[in-house]
Write a structure and sequence with these properties.
This protein has 116 residues and is mostly helical. It has one domain. The protein is built from six helices and no strands. It is elongated. It starts with 8 loop residues before the first helix and ends with a helix.
Length: 116
């Protein structure tokens, strides 16, 4: 399929045409992301943290079943056929979400220890 686009000069200057399919794929995922499906897990985690949960609530935090199933699906794909570039970027996104959760849990432990 051929598509013609008109872009502002500043965006066009930053655009690497070799990455255009990847940019479009990730952009479409982001646009179509439905927080209830937990596309990236990030929305879910940020909404949880925005409620200012107690340290105990943070320690019991876990990903939704949908997000965990997507992660398991990616792990299986990596074992059986390997990641394409889009999968690799999605995996890095999940690693970032996991990092945020670990930081929140570490801070929750510190707060609980200080309150004793």
């Amino acid at each position: 399929m051929q598509i013609t686009l008109e872009l502002p000069d500043d965006i066009a200057a930053k655009l690497n045409k070799d990455n255009l399919p990847q940019i479009l794929t990730l952009g479409l995922r982001e646009i179509n992301a439905n927080p209830s499906t937990g596309f990236s897990g990030l929305t879910e985690i940020l909404e949880f943290l925005a409620k200012l949960p107690s340290p105990q609530e943070i320690l019991t935090l876990h990903l939704s079943t949908d997000v965990q199933e997507e992660i398991n699906s990616l792990l299986e794909k990596n074992r059986t056929e390997g990641f394409n570039e889009s999968d690799r970027l999605l995996w890095q996104h999940y690693e970032f979400v996991e990092h945020l959760v670990r930081l929140a849990k570490a801070q929750a432990i510190v707060k609980l220890q200080q309150s004793k």
